[in-house]
Please model this.
Amino acid sequence: MEELSQHILDVAFNSLEAGADRLEITVSENILINLLQIEVRDNGRGISPADIPRVMDPFYTTKKEKRVGLGIPLFREAVERCGGIFEIKPAPQAGTVVTATFPHDHLDRAPLGDIAGTITVLMAGNTPLRLIYRHRYNEKIFSFDTKDFQSLLGEDIPLRSPEVLVWMGKHLVENIANLKEADTLEKFGRTG
Model:
């Protein structure tokens, strides 16, 4: 996979296959301490500590139509290639948490990629799904929650409608870009 957003999408699909109806995806970029961290948290069936080594094995899969399960091992390899840390653990109440921590400026780190596209693909195919996306950039944060978004639209307009998905994608792209731009402008004393 050429972009980290593709790994996020793969982990999210695993969560949905495990029965999750709530996903929290958090991307934290802190240039000052050279950190990029991705966390995907779900409320699915969860994972037992005994199963964690098996899901790291590319020749293990729970999917009957597949012979290998490359998603998690490839994600882990992408992290470790950069000297980062990859972790899967059971969530405190229910579900699973996958965390990938990279040095932000490492030459071998794949680009973050199309996060807005990843979020809209997840929304296009899955209802009801409560998806919470957070993007931190240094000290700034942008949050997006489909529950809040649905309450603004009303119950008559589904999040999966093409017009809403297009708008949602643009909203995500603009707000993530604004987050980074606002931080840059602040650093150089040009606010407003």
